[in-house]
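Hi support team,

I'm filing this because I wasn't sure whether my run with adenosine-5'-triphosphate finished correctly. The job status page said complete, but I'd like someone to confirm that the output block is well-formed before I use it downstream. Pasting the exact inputs I used:
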Amino acid sequence: MSVTVRVPAKVNVQLAVGGVREDGYHDLANVFLAVGLYDEVTVAPAETLTVTCSGPGADQVPLDRTNLAARAAELLAARHGIDPAVHIHIAKDIPVAGGMAGGSADGAGALLACDALWSTGASRDELLDICAELGSDVPFSLVGGAALGTGRGERLTVLPVGGAFHWVFAVADGGLSTPAVYREFDRLNEGVDVPAPVASPMLLDALGTGDAAALAGALANDLQPAALSLRPSLADTLTAGTEAGALAALVSGSGPTTAFLAKDSDAAAVIAETLLASGTCRSARVASAPAQGATIL
Ligand SMILES: C[C@](O)(CO)[C@H](O)COP(=O)(O)OP(=O)(O)OC[C@H]1O[C@@H](n2ccc(N)nc2=O)[C@H](O)[C@@H]1O
Ligand SMILES: Nc1ncnc2c1ncn2[C@@H]1O[C@H](COP(=O)(O)OP(=O)(O)OP(=O)(O)O)[C@@H](O)[C@H]1O
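And here is everything the job wrote out:
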C-alpha cells in the first residue's frame, strides 16, 4: 500500500518584508500564488525511515533526516505515537533552491501522505500547525490557491482569485540560500527605518478580478534587490523576458528563479522560447495559476 500526493510550487506576487524580529525572522505581508509546477511525494511502509529523490536537481536534495519530507513524517509520527518507518520518494519537478518553495512542497506532501497512510485522524488545524513548525512557506504548500501570509508568512488568510494567470519561470544555474538573501536584505537596509509590511489593496483586487494587466502593475518583491545583489546576472534574464513581451517580470521569492507574467498562454509560450534562446537561463517553464494545494492522487 502506498499514498502519492501532488504539491504545487509558489510564486510570491507581493513579498513585503518588514524589519528583523527578535527571533531572527522578518515580519511579512506575503501574497502567495500556487502555480502548476509540481513535486509528487509517495510514501509506503518500510523497515526504517528512508528518502529517495528523482528528477532535475535531485542530487542537491538531502536524503537524510534534514529533508523536510522526513521531518514531516517524524513530527506527525511523534504526535500520534507512531513509528515513522516509511519510505518516502520525491519525484522532483520544482526547481531546487529556486525560491519556489520546493522543499516546503515536499514537507507538506509527505505530511498529507503519511496522515493518509497512518489514518491518524489529525485535524486540518493540526496539520497546519505541523506545517508551520517545518517552515514559513509550508502551510501555503498544503493550502494552495492564493493566500496572504502574515507573521513570518505562516499565518494564512485564503484569497479569492477571479481567473487564470499565465506565467513563465526561468530557472537559473545554481540556487540561492534563503537565509543569505534575507541577510543581504538586512545589509542593504542597514540604518533604514523599514516600514511595517502591508498587502497592497490594488494587488488583492487584481487577483480577485483575474486581471493580468492590473496584477502586472502591482507585482512587488522586497527581496528582489537582495537577490540581484547576490546574483547580478538575473537582471539580464529579467530584461530578456520583458523584451519578449512579458507584462511584468520579477524574482520569485528569494530567487534565483525569475517569474514572467504573460497576457495569455500563447504569449507565455513565446516568452519561454525567447528566454531559452537568450542564453540567460538554464531552462524556461510555462505554468498557469492558481493551482490546487497538496492533493492525494
Ligand atoms: C522567501 C520566502 O520563500 C517567501 O515566501 C519565505 O519567506 C522563506 O520561507 P522558508 O523557506 O519556509 O523559510 P524558513 O525555513 O521558515 O526560514 C529559513 C530562513 O529564512 C529567513 N526568514 C524566513 C522567513 C521570514 N519571514 N523571515 C526570515 O528571515 C530566516 O533566516 C530563516 O532562518
Ligand atoms: N525535500 C527537499 N527538497 C529540496 N530541498 C530540500 C528538501 N528538504 C530540505 N531541503 C534543503 O532546503 C534547501 C532549499 O531548497 P528549496 O528547494 O526548498 O528552496 P526554495 O525553493 O528556495 O525555498 P523557499 O522558496 O521556500 O525559500 C536545499 O538547498 C536543501 O538543502
